[in-house]
Amino acid sequence: MSSTRSSKRAALRRDLELFEVWFKHTGMHNAGDELLINNSTRLYSIGQIQSAVGCQTLTHIFLSREMLPKIDELAPQLSHLRLFFFTSRQVSSPYFSRISRLKNLQVLHMSCNSLQHSGLPPDMFYTMKSLREVDVSACNLSTLPESLFHLESLVRLNASFNNFLMAELPDLFSSLVSLKELLLQNCSLKTLPPSAGKIPNLEMLILSENWLMTKQLLEVVCSISSLKKIILQNCRLKKLPVGFVAYHAYMCVFMNMCEIFTALWIILHL
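Request: output the structure for the sequence above.
Response:
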């Protein structure tokens, strides 16, 4: 009897707890993916979310500061998720680990979270095989979890504005066979992992505001035959690496504040 009363009290507390959230379900029309970023959150309880969704299916959720309990049960068909203003404490909670159970998730935005203490869970991405876009920019990360490099469907990865100076990135980039866009702006990078030159379908590489070494940059970048655009703003490069033109026809290179290059847009043609 007492356990039943305790369960009811716990359920009541959950019903009264409010979460800062915006969501989209299959019954909502004319709400494109951009609304995941542009819409404002409101305070909802779990019960209010369930009531608003009714018999429809949750597809998009934007959460601020606190993770929804049992998000995988509330939204098992979720395709887009954005988390904002999270800290290491929230990421370390059991609720956060349930993100890995969202098997249909295609877009995960986690930019601007303060994760410098724990980082991302190392096994977070192993089961998230449907992910096509991951944004972990400005999260105070010192490295990326190895499980991220098991995402064979990943098309876009934004890990800009993190500090990878003290720890090496996993040399596993070549396993990202579908990756087309890699953003590593302002990451305190001096070198790139050699496997970055073996990403088979990479088309755009953003390396602005890093202290890259010219020779190593040439070795990596000139190995990517599919590359169409590379952005090297404020990378302190003294010269364009010899062989760049020969390796990359029809590739756009934007170099600004690279010592002898000032506001220079170079379109390379053979």
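The chain has eight helices and twelve strands.
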